[in-house]
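Hello,

Our lab assistant flagged a job as stuck in the queue for most of the afternoon. It eventually completed. Since we weren't sure the result was trustworthy after the delay, we are filing this so someone can double-check. Below is the sequence as submitted and the structure that was eventually returned. Let us know if re-running is recommended.
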Amino acid sequence: MSRINKPLLGQRAAIILLLGALTALGAGILAHAADGAPAGAALAAGTAFAGSVLFFNTIIG
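-- returned structure --
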């Protein structure tokens, strides 16, 4: 197998990062709807992303 056909991310990592991004998007939208401050929504989204990636990494074995 040549190096060109090798995937950039594994399937497990891609799923974990996708779930983290979706969680962050939802948290950011909810935080912006509740508060209206974009900076607070961005901080909430970043925190949710970090926490959800750690969570999904733990439960997806």
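-- support follow-up --
The delay was a queue issue, not a problem with the job. The result is valid. The first helix runs from residue 11 to 35. Residues 9 and 58 are 18 Å apart (CA to CA).
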